[in-house]
Queue: 2 jobs
Job 1
Amino acid sequence: MKKLMKNIHLQNYQGLIDNALLEMENAQIMERIWEKDFTVWKNNPEEISNRLAWLEIAQVITDETKEINNFVNELLMEGYKQVLLMGMGGSSLAPEVYRKTFGVKDGYLDLWILDSTDPGMIQSYTRRLDPQNTLFIVSTKSGGTIETLSFFKYFYTFLVDKLGEAEAGKHFILITDPESSLIEIAQTYHFRKTFLNNPDLGGRYSALSHFGLVPAAMIGVDISLLLERAQVMMKKCQPNIPYKDNPAAFLGALLAEMAKNWRDKATYILTPDIQSFGDWVEQLIAESTGKEKKGILPVVKESLGDPMFYFKDRLFIVMSLPLTELSWIGKINNLVLSGQPVIHLELKDYYDIAGQFFLWELATAVAGYRLEINPFNQPNVEISKKITRQIIKKYSEGSPIDEPEPLIKKDEMIVYGDIEADDPYEALRVFLSPCHPGDYIAIQAYVNPNRETECLLLRLCSVLRDSFQVATTVGYGPRFLHSTGQLHKGDAGNGYFIQLTSEPKVDIPIPDEAGSWQSQVSFGALIKFQALGDYYALQNGKRTIIRFHFENEVSVGVDRLIRSLQ
Ligand SMILES: O=P(O)(O)OC[C@H]1O[C@H](O)[C@H](O)[C@@H](O)[C@@H]1O
């Protein structure tokens, strides 16, 4: 434990955590989790007993690394140069961590991830990829995710145009569960391969399964070494390890006890080389704990500020690699001095990411036990999907769609919400006026996730945090719907949601059937309806939401909002 945790500052919470660990030891919680005893969480095994295979996947899957590596070699021999992975949430976040952390090894395939339905984003991928040398991964556990299916239909049709029908299917592979309806589609369209994943684990617990390992091997990551590192961590978390030295027991108890004591904002400070781990752990914690009016809010994108900008609702988690220049170490010390609880985990090298995947999965399962929730389901995600499907149906039938009445139109912005104001800036101020420390502000941006927008949205977060002393998060739609979307609708309801939408400059059709350009719905319509579906889902759930629609440049609109707050 000491090697793993560089520093632990629990302030006056040490006794609370010691007690929680003692209680857990007496109730043999780690033993029961490893024995896959569903009663740890609920009295009903539904969506628990068939969701625990991640506990051993790093061992079980070692037999399959050879097959995965052989497949990658086959692709390299055939001259493939790049891979476009199409998937949402648990089917794409771990591959993104591997790509952003390890980069691409010489001679291996470059990996791009597509998890945005923004037409501009899809167009830029289409322009950049070389059809001859690109492999497409359709990655979906359920086989029913609308974004993933739409990406498949679009890129397959695109490839038929470029290479012909006989060639197109050879450029596609599928990663899915054995029961998925996509298996038949893969056969129909002559995909080159289908990897069937272990169905007994959820997407956010799948980093060490086919969903993570196949793309990792493609960029030249040594997947056997990854699994070894995960197994090292598994050993450290066995039930025979005293609970106080068991990192998963400790972390799980820490996350949950802090949340129960109003420190429910798990704020990650990650060094740039492992920054993307934040996006993965965000889905894991938010989707696993944000339900039954409870939840831990992962804060993964905020810049590190001075102590005065933080309320006493935080737990800070610092993660770094040895010898990384920690320019912000002084700021961390100030946080400790100001009374904030801070822990610092140190990874030996990039391959330790695999150990961290396992550690946080088990810690989240432990936290779920302490919070008395089922950490393996996502009961509220379906709500916005359902409303979006209804809107799409109406639109396809040519029926009118219910849209909220615009409140204000000014400065190329249209504002929607249940407040009274004369201009967008006043609307934002009025909207946020009841927001107080302990709440959080979530920016939900259904826009092209390019660098310029990202910088501005992060700036908006900083300004909001510093003005209101609240935790802030930012997520791109529809990506966040598969990550933090569950928490937004399932937690206690103290979030303030700022939805940002934009007028697409281009549009791209979603083929009704793969292979033909006939199309009823475009990506532009889909992203609009996804935003609308979630807007209504949040409203129905009595959440506080405002929408700013940018008629022109998103960057100009966001910049105006930032200035109005300063
Ligand atoms: O892998 P898929 O079945 O396509 O699912 C992708 C994502 O969809 C849903 O929104 C779930 O809430 C996520 O947990 C999941 O990761």
Note: Residues 88-91, 140-142, 145, 148, 203-204, 287, 378, 381, 482 surround 6-O-phosphono-alpha-D-glucopyranose (CB under 6 Å).
Job 2
Amino acid sequence: MRDTSAQDISAQKKELRHKMTVIRSHVSAASRRDQSIAASLLAENEVLSPLRKSRGGRLNVFCYVSFRDEPETLHLIRTCLERGDRVLVPKVISEERKLELHEMNDVNDLIPGVWGIPEPGDNMPHWPTARYAEIDIIIVPGLAYDRYGGRIGFGGGYYDRFIEQISSVKSTGLIPIKASLTLEEQIIPGRIPMEEHDFRLDMLFTASGMIYI
Ligand SMILES: Nc1nc2c(c(=O)[nH]1)N(C=O)[C@@H](CNc1ccc(C(=O)N[C@@H](CCC(=O)O)C(=O)O)cc1)CN2
Ligand SMILES: Nc1ncnc2c1ncn2[C@@H]1O[C@H](COP(=O)(O)OP(=O)(O)OP(=O)(O)O)[C@@H](O)[C@H]1O
């Protein structure tokens, strides 16, 4: 049995998920597209491009593939591919509630997976856990964010587990940047209720600017 405060947080998260799902569904497709493009441009110009220069020309970028009314990631993914980065995309392994990474060279090779989320096709090489330490930046999905690195997702814990796996294989060297693309409407004024297992983001890309944490 979890203690009362853990149950409280869990109930607050459930309520926030519901509220933010509704709020996000009310953003028009045009606004979502415009905001996604602007946020992606900012990510490229302010972070990816300088990082590429400092890390020898080619990055290993993990990026979720958007579905439903999430901020669209294909703009950013295409830019990374054009710049010669290695783009890693996740496949949902629902039985184990985990993500498996695959290297993508062409967005046309994505196929519909669990819940209709576009995922790597069979021709995309698997990126083993042992190589997670080589990832430079991780772009994660989320339903809502605060300005202090707090994030809430769909509630499967997929990304918490993934980030934990990355930390467990990190031995020496650089820690990957954890970031999200977000619509303005997804940023809440206060703080997201966070639990011990929840990771924090390093930066948020929005249409009107970046938020560094
Ligand atoms: N693009 C993207 N990929 C992602 C996530 C995400 O948020 N965005 N996830 C981040 O964690 C994981 C998938 N999480 C999901 C959780 C629930 C549902 C879903 O459709 N649930 C049903 C509820 C019924 C059921 O339990 O099956 C629904 O909403 O109708 C979809 C995805 C991994 N991949
Ligand atoms: N590292 C972990 N190991 C095992 N279980 C975990 C871990 N992280 C989260 N969980 C479990 O996953 C469930 C969902 O977690 P949480 O509410 O934080 O999801 P979320 O961050 O909103 O979802 P997601 O990461 O899929 O977007 C919780 O029941 C939690 O106990």
Note: The chain has a mean pLDDT of 95.
